[in-house]
Design a protein that fits this description.
single chain; about 240 residues; alpha/beta; 2-enoyl-CoA Hydratase, Chain A, domain 1; two-stranded antiparallel sheet; about 40% helix
């Protein structure tokens, strides 16, 4: 008024814009896991992209998803009654085994309906995260790499080291078998298959192949994923989830 510029209020659009930009920078999320308009946005989208970072900090040039950012978001989503469903979008090369399994366990134990969508790639430890959701989808051109556990850095060449690797491998294998329809012999054969260009051992699955063996539930995209979430919230709508 009177030709003078009014100072921005603490809750004005300027502070909101800064909060959004900070959230994108730190968490890769457009908004925090809160649904201000449940009738318009009942679902929250969580992205897991790049390399899953665990206890070791990766170089700044790497595109990473930090598990210490993801886990608090999952807790906040589970506690928010306005969020009716969670869509997990994956495009990851894998990463830290224990961090990936921690995220997968959190997803599996949530009461909030969850749907995963593999876009681009859901490789290595990304596979347990994909199958941890209540329903999983993969785009027609996306790929998933199934291979044995590999360690980087110093490895002590003693029998106990190999026993530890076997135990870690069994944890990942058991989780995938318990949360998908793939058969144990098929999964293990793909993990240790030689002859493909997957660092000498393993298997690359493309879209429909992942569905055919029972690893993923359906080939589809964003529209299908959101429809599946809607059916989980309203089981009677469109006949429910098949």
């Amino acid at each position: 008024m009177n030709g003078q510029e009014q100072p921005a209020t603490p809750g004005g659009s300027g502070s909101k814009d800064k909060a959004v930009l900070q959230n994108i920078k730190e968490l890769g999320q457009i908004s925090r896991p809160q649904a201000q308009e449940p009738e318009v946005q009942p679902f929250h989208c969580l992205t897991i992209i790049g390399q899953i970072e665990g206890h070791m900090v990766l170089p700044p040039r790497n595109k990473t998803t930090k598990y210490e950012h993801v886990i608090p978001q999952l807790v906040a989503i589970e506690q928010n009654p306005k969020i009716k469903g969670l869509l997990v979008v994956l495009n990851t090369v894998g990463g830290d085994i224990e961090a990936g399994l921690a995220i997968a366990e959190m997803l599996h134990t949530m009461k909030t309906p969850t749907v995963s969508l593999v876009l681009g790639g859901g490789h290595s430890i990304g596979a347990p995260i994909a199958v941890a959701a209540d329903y999983s989808l993969i785009s027609a051109t996306a790929t998933m790499t199934i291979h044995p556990i590999r360690l980087s850095g110093l490895v002590i060449g003693v029998p106990q080291t190999y026993e530890y690797l076997d135990k870690m491998q069994e944890r990942v294998t058991r989780f995938i078998l318990e949360h998908s329809r793939v058969k144990a012999d098929v999964l293990r054969e793909m993990m240790f298959r030689t002859g493909e260009l997957v660092r000498d051992v393993g298997t690359v699955l493309v879209g429909e192949e992942a569905v055919r063996i029972g690893l993923i539930d359906e080939v589809g995209g964003l529209g299908v994923a959101l429809s599946r979430l809607a059916q989980m919230i309203e089981p009677d709508a469109e006949g429910g989830v098949q």
